[in-house]
Design brief:
By secondary structure, the protein is α+β, with helices and mostly antiparallel strands. It contains ten helices and seven strands. The protein is 46% helix and 12% strand.
Length: 295
């Protein structure tokens, strides 16, 4: 008896059905790109893969436990993805899903971006101007970007100084940096709820620790009271980074570590600079200033 292939009918309605489904999946991926939803989805996929393997190898206990875990995860998905769902509905109502995405500026090396951040931090520290600078890692910070004013401007020392000038309308809050772009300013960051956090830390330090507890971002903090420069990463705070050379080395090592490269070992030398006037030529300290901190 010859084998008979089933008859498959494919019409215009089926074509538009597949096209609409693919477009919906594409815009959903664009929606969650650059947010914390991406690693969460990868975690769910890992659980599904382990469940499939457990069923194949007849691991009944593990398969049963994973089924309950996935069931509980499915019930909590609307809560976990609340920011993404809200953004999707807002864009759908404004018709913004079909809008063209703004092109990024020219890429610059990681060293140039880190140098600009270190120079700006030292100038702000000398003038006792408080600042909070979040550097995006592998985990996107789009939900925090939307809490502030979107800039999408080329990162530079002058731009950072202008944003954190005390009379600037954007100085109160954090700036978020992604690569060579200053994405937004005046952003709100989550405060750390760790009971073991030092009670003497101010709001800037608690916000920096809170963001690094939830993401892999690197946050620079300049104290308004003392002018001290600190760095938060992975929920921990590093201090005594007032030397521009050391700050640049630590920042470069942290950024490379976030990208999976081999981090450099920062020096342990601490140098304090005196208070200087806010001018571009004081961004890079001279060799005599580094040798004589009291000058």
């Amino acid at each position: 008896m010859p084998f008979a292939f089933p008859q498959i009918s494919f019409g215009v309605a089926d074509f538009f059905d597949i096209l609409a489904t693919a477009a919906l999946a594409y815009y959903l991926l664009l929606l969650i790109r650059g947010t914390r939803a991406v690693p969460i989805l990868f975690g769910i996929l890992v659980l599904v893969a382990v469940l499939v393997a457990a069923n194949v190898f007849h691991l009944l206990v593990l398969a049963t436990v994973l089924q309950f875990v996935l069931l509980g995860t499915a019930l909590t998905l609307p809560i976990v993805f609340q920011p993404e769902l809200r953004r999707f509905l807002e864009q759908l109502g404004r018709g913004g899903m079909l809008a063209r995405r703004e092109a990024a500026a020219e890429a610059v090396s990681l060293e140039d971006s880190v140098t600009s951040l270190a120079r700006a931090a030292v100038i702000l520290s000398r003038n006792r101007i408080g600042a909070l600078i979040a550097i995006e890692g592998a985990t996107g910070l789009r939900e925090f970007v939307e809490s502030g004013t979107r800039l999408d401007a080329r990162l530079s020392v002058e731009l950072l100084l202008a944003v954190f000038t005390p009379r600037s309308p954007l100085h109160d809050g954090a700036v978020i940096v992604r690569g060579n772009l200053l994405e937004a300013a005046g952003c709100f960051l989550p405060l750390s709820e760790n009971v073991f956090t030092d009670s003497h830390l101010g709001t800037r330090h608690r916000a920096a620790i809170g963001l690094t507890e939830q993401t892999d971002a690197i946050v620079l903090i300049i104290s308004e009271q003392s002018g001290a420069i600190s760095l938060a990463r992975l929920g921990k705070l590093s201090r005594e980074l007032d030397d521009e050379t050391r700050l640049r080395s630590v920042l470069l090592a942290c950024c490379r570590a976030a990208r999976g490269s081999r981090p450099a070992r920062p020096a342990r030398r601490r140098v304090r600079f005196g208070r200087r006037s806010l001018r571009p030529e004081s961004a890079a300290p001279s060799a005599s200033e580094a040798a004589n901190p009291s000058a």
